[in-house]
Amino acid sequence: MLTTPAAGSKPSEDPADIDRRDPESEIYARATAYRNWGRWGDDDVLGTLNFIDAAKRIEAAGLVREGRVVSLSLAFNTDGPQKGWRRRVNPIHTMTDTGSDAELGNQGFPHGIGGADDYITMPLQSSTQWDGLGHIFDHGKAWNGRRAGTTVTSDGDLVTGIEHAADVIVSRGVLLDVGRFLAPETGELPNGYGVTAADLDACIAAQGTSSTVGRGDIVVVRTGRLARARRDGWDDYAGGEAAGISLTAAGWIHRTEIAAIATDTWGFEVRPNEFDVPSFQPLHQVAIPNMGLTIGEMWDLDELAVACAELGRFDFLLSAPPLPITGAVGSPVNPVAIL
């Protein structure tokens, strides 16, 4: 039987306290404790992105001092990490007009002008991307308690489509390089390591005041998993084992009132998940449909980590708007950190 935590109590933030045989109860306890349904009204479509306001963007703009721009995106090409799980494949780039066509003069244009055109075929979550609010459901419920079946249909996400965030995701970004903090010799956490609330707080303390996290910030967490994939090959980067955020850090995410979070891993949360019985992405189940949290995955944080270490500060202006694809439950993105 599922039980609601006693009034005023919160689920433990110590992974040792997780009942590894009962994911249902562990998820339920956190979903109910950190649920934001109704917080921004019954019609809300943004969830925690509501924490970003004009004042926060003005604060973020003031962090631009060197004019240094770092892209946090992987390449979108056929050499990407996807292996076909649930029909996710790497992007397929096709040319429809080329320089050869122009040289041959077979494009039908006058006075010698020629051109090139192309298109791309890809799952929206094949490389660096955002998980939108319609991406994950909890017992048939979408964000804000809506019915999953009427929120996302074969026509797409009819309510919380990613297009609603197209002019929203610009804010103060904060890098938490937990890979370097917890494993200074390699900068890479081992697969299966669950990053806890205590780890995040300790990393902030070690990095200094520029790492302080608060309302409206977008937190990017580097585990070092991408650096290992870049060195050793993709292997099971997409869907396999990785360090990531522990389910027990859900309370930290909720109380800091961050607007969004992203990692350098395929799944954001620790994999394998923290149970000895079948489970799948329990933190997603708490965070997206219950908190209304936008989650970024497969972000390239390695160059940013170097830049932040060189400058001795870990906050920056972050611009990461999704493509306004109507009804999409996720979007490719080229996030840029401006220092």
UniProtKB/TrEMBL annotation:
Origin, by domain of life? Bacteria
Task: Give the GO molecular function terms.
Answer: arylformamidase activity
**GO BP term, pick one:** L-tryptophan catabolic process to kynurenine
Query: Which ranges are annotated Basic and acidic residues under compositional bias?
Result: 11-22
Instruction: Please give the residue ranges the record annotates as the region Disordered.
Output: 1-22
Protein known as:
Cyclase family protein
Organism the protein comes from: Naasia lichenicola
